[in-house]
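Example record

One chain of 123 residues, shown exactly as stored in the release files.
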Amino acid sequence: MKDPEIDILIAELERQTDLTVADFDGIIHALAFLLPDTVDPAKNPADRLNTTDAAMHIADDAFPNWAVHIRGRANDKDGHWRCTLRENDSRDSDAFIGTGRSPILGQAVLAAVMRLAMVRKKD
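Predicted structure tokens for this chain:
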């Protein structure tokens, strides 16, 4: 899986509000590629990936002890959510920061995890 393919999946997470199980299957395989020691498609089924709890468990497993900042507004059906993953919550000296935004909170978290994993995989 190449970076442009992952970029497309992140764009889908951030743009769409009605992802299918097939869409989440692609996302879980991208996460398994980026985080092979953390994400196992057998233990993280695509049909459960659409919950915020599942996204937070993946973030916690992938980046333990990292700070998760969530900001947003709940509007009617969907909100405007932003998620930031930072290694150090007290200083502004993080080497890497993961960010994501989406109308769906769990998808904002997954986008942040994927961006952070991409940057760290390159190093």
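Notes: The beta strands are 67-74, 79-86, 97-102.
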